[in-house]
Specification:
Strand order of the largest sheet: 4-14-13-12-11-10-6-5
Largest sheet: 8 strands, parallel
CATH superfamily of the largest domain: Queuine tRNA-ribosyltransferase-like
Structural class: alpha/beta
Oligomer: single chain
Distance between the termini: 44 Å
Order of helices and strands: EEEEHEHHHEHEEEHEHEHEHEHEHEEHHH
Strand content: 15-25%
CATH architecture of the largest domain: Alpha-Beta Barrel
Helix content: 40-55%
Number of helices: 14
């Protein structure tokens, strides 16, 4: 394989690049729709691809329990199982384990013991098991198991998570992986400058194929999150992809791109759709509101998604209020297309040296 990642243009810290994987190239910056259980909720894979999605995210935790990595491997791997022939990134399951803190029995240097959300049975994740599961899934990018501390934990607990994340990354770095599979390390440290810097430098030194900024967008002060991203992204190797885990609102996407981040994911577009809301150039709108009952306009005049090119706000509002599945599907299609196009526009702006004005214009419209 040729060089994994290449920066093709810069505008300030913002970058336009290409990431090469076993299932094709990904042009960055890129928003990755989340297919937690092997599907982007309510959508056919061809629909997701037609929206412009270049890469999907799958979840190691959930796929491990249902249907199990051995079943998926027996059936040809995750790409074949879900009928998606473009790249897939799988997270390690660490975020799910630590976000479901009530299920955790204990955390030690070897791994984490917890109860499955499916049946309450005791289970255990280790760095080696996270690598093994993702190897059997056959994803293009596999993430390291990390310890994700909650926002606002004591500095002692944050420091412990940083230490353990590095030690787990060292163990997973040389673990078995599928042919052509890339592996990314994850830095922790919250918004603590010293610990974030330490974690970022330690993970970068392990020379993974790419590096992720983890443990942010989990409830900390938003301005502190952006400030931390600005300086810690610059500490990551410039010749490798940078991934901010779990951000998907328009403002957040533009901010992390400006900081030099190349990849990001979030359940926000489909989760927002399930609440009856749409992302638009003028901001988020709630279709349940009575003001849209006779509104003949599309969700967004500038959007070319299947919802906007054919249906009115009034009709989609009717579907949402009647709990019709088509309403959920149309809003999911629109919200994903909106973020994919926002990101594609950012790349175009970087290539022509106009990202600052692009960001300013988009944020002013959102206000």
């Amino acid at each position: 394989m040729s060089r994994i990642f290449e920066v093709q243009a810069t505008d300030g810290a913002a970058r336009a690049g290409v990431l090469r994987t076993a299932h094709g190239e990904v042009r960055t910056p890129v928003f990755m729709p989340v297919g937690t259980k092997g599907t982007v909720k309510s959508l056919h894979p061809d629909e997701v691809r037609d929206l412009g999605a270049q890469i999907l995210l799958g979840n190691t935790y959930h796929l491990h329990f249902r249907p199990g990595e051995d079943v998926i491997a027996e059936l040809g791997g995750l790409h074949r199982f879900m009928s998606w022939d473009l790249p897939i990134l799988t997270d390690s399951g660490g975020f799910q384990v630590f976000s479901l803190r009530d299920t955790i029995a204990r955390v030690d240097d070897e791994g984490v013991t917890f109860r499955s959300v499916y049946d309450g049975a005791e289970a255990r994740f280790t760095p080696e098991l996270a690598a093994e599961i993702q190897t059997k899934l056959g994803s293009d990018i596999a993430m390291c198991l990390d310890q994700v501390p909650a926002a606002g934990v004591s500095r002692r607990k944050l420091e412990e998570a940083v230490r353990r994340t590095t030690e787990w990354a060292k163990r997973q770095r040389n673990a078995l992986r599928a042919d052509g599979q890339l592996r990314f390390g994850i830095a922790q440290g919250g918004v603590d400058p010293e610990l974030r810097r330490r974690s970022t430098e330690e993970i970068a030194a392990l020379d993974f194929d790419g590096n992720a900024i983890g443990g942010l967008a989990i409830g900390e002060d938003r301005e502190a999150m952006f400030e931390t991203t600005d300086w810690c992204a610059a500490l990551l190797p410039a010749d490798k992809p940078r991934y901010f885990m779990g951000i998907g609102d328009p403002e957040g996407i533009l901010e992390v791109i400006e900081a030099g981040v190349d990849m990001f994911d979030c359940v926000l577009p489909t989760r927002t759709a399930r609440t009856g809301s749409a992302l638009t150039r003028g901001g988020r709108i709630n279709l349940r509101n009575a003001q849209f009952a006779r509104d003949q306009a599309p969700l967004d005049e500038s959007c070319d998604c299947p919802a906007c090119t054919r249906f009115t706000r009034a009709y989609i509002r009717h579907l949402v209020n009647q709990n019709e599945l088509l309403g959920l599907r149309l809003l999911s299609l629109h919200n994903l297309r909106f973020l994919i196009e926002l990101t594609r526009g950012a790349r175009d702006a970087i290539e022509r040296g106009g990202f600052a004005s692009y960001k300013r214009d988009r944020l002013e419209r959102l206000q």
